[in-house]
Specification:
By secondary structure, the protein is α/β, with parallel strands linked by helices. It has 2 domains: about 140 residues, 3-Layer(aba) Sandwich (Rossmann fold); about 170 residues, Rossmann fold, CATH 3.40.50. Helices cover about 35% and strands about 20% of the residues. It has a 6-stranded parallel sheet with strand order 2-1-3-4-5-6, sandwiched between helices. Strand 7, helix 5 and strand 8 form a beta-alpha-beta unit. It starts with a helix and ends in an 11-residue tail after the last helix.
């Protein structure tokens, strides 16, 4: 998804400049979306399943590598062709050979890549460079006190491999003291979609909670603007919540989400409940009730979240840095 967002920004800026460049994204998995949406705009996509894969057949001016198994060995081969190389990473666990590196993670450590990239490399580090869809920059700033005080948004991504949506629904069903307005967001490929649909219907019938289920929603930004609290995972959704000034209860579903989530929890942006297999129905229900009954706490969390991701940076800023590698491209003024 971050590649799709960046590709969209690149497409818009190249369209405005009326100049063509050959740009290739490198990922570990197939992405028909990249090819279908941006192929006509000369944005290409290569799937590299093996570290020693040969990509000499691809003629590119710029490579954008988003692949956790690739490092300087692969990237240097790209650079030797005369092409520019950008790397998107969030692990800082291997050396890179690139002209531009992007890591939007919020970390206690200063410049984790100082010894992992060549001196020539420009580094874009921190959540101010988060690759967010345009809808998040277009949303008006909403005063937190005007939000529905008991409206909760639940989203663990489209597929939700840990099935935290079902556990969250069980937690909501157990809450009796607060009548909730709940938006549940899942993808059509959710592994237990039928179970989720059945639980939503059942809870609506046996409790006073008002639950709305959204499948493949394209209104996430608007739903975040309306909610006073979100339950979800770590990862890129952190930055969507931050720019929306939305407090959250976070359950990590992947190891690479933990460090950033802990840091943000220390900054009072969210509450980290633990890894997915360590969080119970009771834990989540108790945390939900506590925060929803503490409006001053939510207000403070909202303000802290808003300070993490400024609206004036993000995807447009990153896109300009990317395309500045392809001189002489006349970039638009900010």
């Amino acid at each position: 998804m971050r590649c799709l967002t960046l590709a969209k920004g690149i497409q818009n800026m190249l369209d405005a400049s009326d100049i063509l460049h050959s740009i290739t994204f490198v990922n570990s998995q197939e992405s028909t979306l990249l090819q279908e949406r941006y192929g006509p705009c000369n944005l290409n996509h290569e799937v590299v399943k093996q570290i020693d894969s040969n990509v000499e057949h691809v003629d590119a001016d710029l490579w954008i590598v988003d692949h956790y198994q690739l490092d300087e060995t692969f990237e240097q081969k790209l650079s030797l062709t005369g092409a520019k190389v950008m790397v998107i990473d969030d692990l800082a666990n291997r050396p890179h050979y690139c002209d531009l590196l992007l890591d939007v993670n919020f970390s206690d450590r200063v410049n984790r890549y100082e010894t992992l990239v060549p001196p020539k490399c420009k580094m874009l580090l921190g959540p101010e460079y988060a690759l967010l869809r345009q809808e998040f920059y277009e949303q008006p700033t909403v005063d937190f006190i005007k939000r529905d005080p008991v409206r909760v948004l639940v989203c663990f991504g489209g597929s939700d491999p840990a099935n935290m949506t079902s556990l969250t629904l069980d937690s909501i069903a157990s809450i009796k003291d607060v009548q909730l307005q709940v938006d549940i967001v899942i993808g059509s490929g959710h592994q237990t979609k039928r179970v989720v649909i059945e639980k939503v219907n059942q809870i609506t019938q046996i409790t006073e909670h008002n639950i709305r289920l959204h499948i493949d929603s394209d209104q996430i930004a608007k739903l975040m603007q309306k909610a006073s609290l979100m339950v979800g995972a770590g990862g890129s959704m952190h930055w969507e919540r931050c720019i929306s000034m939305l407090p959250a209860l976070v359950v990590c579903v992947a190891e690479n989400q933990v460090e950033t989530t802990r840091c943000l929890s220390k900054e009072n942006v969210c509450r980290y409940l633990g890894f997915w297999d360590q969080v119970s129905v009771t834990d989540l229900a108790r945390a939900l009730v506590f925060l929803l009954q503490s409006p001053s706490t939510l207000q403070a969390m909202s303000e802290c979240a808003g300070s993490i991701v400024p609206r004036h940076c993000g995807t447009p800023c990153v896109t300009k840095h990317v395309l500045s590698l392809l001189k002489p491209l006349p970039l638009q003024q900010a």
